Write the structure tokens for this entry.
Amino acid sequence: MEMITWQSNTLQRSSGIAPECSNYGEDSAREAVTFHEGFPSYSPTPLIPLHGLAKELGLGGVFVKDETHRFGLKAFKALGCSYAMGHELANRLNLSKAAVNEISFAELCSPEVRRQLGMVTFVTATDGNHGLGVSWAAHELGHKAEIFMPVGSARARVESIRELNARCTVTDKNYDDTVRIARDYAAERNAVLIQDTSWPGYTDVPHRIMQGYTTLALEAVRQMRDLGVDRPTHIFLQAGVGSFAGAMLAFFTAIFQEQRPVCVIVEPHAANCLFRSFQAGDGQIRKVTGAMTTIMAGLACGEPSILAWNILRAHADVALSCSEEVAANGMRLLASPNPGDIPLTGGESGAVTAGALEYVMTRSCMKALRIRLGLNTQSRILLICTEGDTNPEMYRRIVRYGHYACTD
């Protein structure tokens, strides 16, 4: 199988902005930032310019938003689940607009509010980072978390969740079936499902999760402007169920309108449901079933979120389906960068976009894609390193010992 296969999105809107994008614009992102600023451990994560890499690849700029520093959790996911959980608690307090910005983090943690609400149990399914975010937010807010993980989950990710006093159960099912287990478990126990994907009848919580993600997008825009860059021309986005990619694309489309960045969706070969959906070209979602074995555990999802699909179908430009070697190469590229560039600890899912960009820009077989995307010396690329070494053993095997070496 080729290291990268690409598919243009023939479903893309020829003009106008999808109405869904208005829910993720700058005003909405400001509300999310205000909420997150209430957490004592909040600070904007860094935006790292990789000038050496950009020069080597013949690009105008490469900028990496480094989410490995977010809340000390090595991943961005807590932005979404904490925001959705805050809204859920605000709703239970019967606030006039049911808006989380009506109550501060300190108030949500106060003894008075806890007496009013009692002990709330938040439930989710996860490949690791989202469940850790739910566990952390529940711990910070003084409530409980019940986490379900799919078969084959890394021990380090399981232990990280349990260290936050959350109950964590590893199932014998894949990710999508584990989501159904969590959904049924929450319904049977009157608990709150905080799932980062959506389906018919379950959209409010995933919508809030996606809005929470836009905190990092607004930070990135402000940081790029501080560096004298008005906007990215291209953005490469990892996709599992697509909620993160959909939120980022919606935000950048809402604020830049017709000048939005060219958007490239990146998935593993083993779980390329969005790639297959674009490939089908009929507007309907295609699912991937089975084990979906990949080192990119955070992207091992076979059923796209319907909220995300509506956005990606309207505005994404190209989908890439990538081999394990692409992700591993991205990890090594960030860990051992060009002279003058700052090294970054990108995990398997976090670094795959860096590996994909390097492959696209350096392989002759990718020339048609470079032309399709308009990648040149004027291009300013935004990458988001969504996770660090959340599986330290795997990280060492790949970065230190060269596992999944690129031979192409």
Remarks:
- The longest strand covers residues 262-268.
